[in-house]
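Translate sequence into structure tokens.
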Amino acid sequence: MTRTEKENLVPVWERITISLEEAAAYSGIGVRKLRDMTDKPECNYVIWVGNRRMIKRKKFDEYLESAYSV
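Result follows.
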């Protein structure tokens, strides 16, 4: 089973964390903008796994619901 097949076993809306690319597709925000947003120290919806950044989906949803602009 390839990595892509394994990732598709659980739908994005049920995952605890999602990749930047998945977050971009999920939210409509570009990957570059997400990188800028998650580089900030006050960002509480990013988790680093080695050098890979993952988005905490529920916290990201909460942030988007309360944000006026990004």
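Note: The beta strands are 17-19, 46-49, 52-56.
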